[in-house]
């Protein structure tokens, strides 16, 4: 949810270099200074898991974020992967 995290998310676009290679939700935008930014989330990151559950599309992620509480994201960034905790 953009107001809660300070980030905007989207499905991986068809034709993207990530399409078909990675399942997850693309981070489209992150507001500087917002909770997501402070946690280290950056545009271009791909969220592959939220709270240890696989995320394959935007609808799934929205349901997980609605619940409130901290979010643990498993992120794919370039050739690496990392975990980020957003409070």
Written description of the protein model:
This protein is α+β, with helices and mostly antiparallel strands and 87 residues long. It has three helices and six strands, in the order H-E-E-H-E-E-H-E-E. Strands 1, 2, 3, 4, 5 and 6 form a six-stranded antiparallel beta sheet that branches. It is globular, with a radius of gyration of 12 Å.
Strand proportion, as a percent range, falls in 35-45%
Indicate the low-confidence ranges by residue numbers: none
- Helical residue percent? 10-25%
| Radius of gyration, CA atoms, in whole angstroms | 12 Å
The biggest beta sheet, please? 6 strands, antiparallel
In N-to-C order, the SSE pattern is HEEHEEHEE
Number of strands: 6
The pLDDT mean sits at 90
Quote the distance from N terminus to C terminus: 13 Å
The helix-and-strand class reads alpha+beta
**What is the overall silhouette?**
globular
Q: Supply the number of helical segments.
A: 3
Brief summary of the model shown:
This protein is of the alpha+beta class.
Set down the secondary structure blueprint.
Elements: H1 2-5, E1 7-11, E2 25-30, H2 35-39, E3 46-50, E4 53-54, H3 58-66, E5 71-77, E6 80-86
Antiparallel strand pairs: 1-2, 2-3, 3-4, 3-5, 5-6
């Amino acid at each position: 949810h953009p107001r809660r995290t300070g980030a905007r998310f989207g499905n991986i676009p068809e034709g993207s270099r990530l399409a078909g290679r990675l399942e997850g939700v693309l981070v489209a935008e992150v507001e500087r200074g917002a909770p997501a930014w402070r946690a280290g989330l950056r545009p271009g990151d791909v969220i592959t898991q939220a709270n240890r559950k696989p995320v394959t599309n935007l609808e799934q992620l929205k349901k997980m974020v609605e619940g409130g509480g901290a979010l643990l994201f498993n992120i794919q960034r370039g050739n690496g992967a990392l975990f980020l905790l957003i409070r």
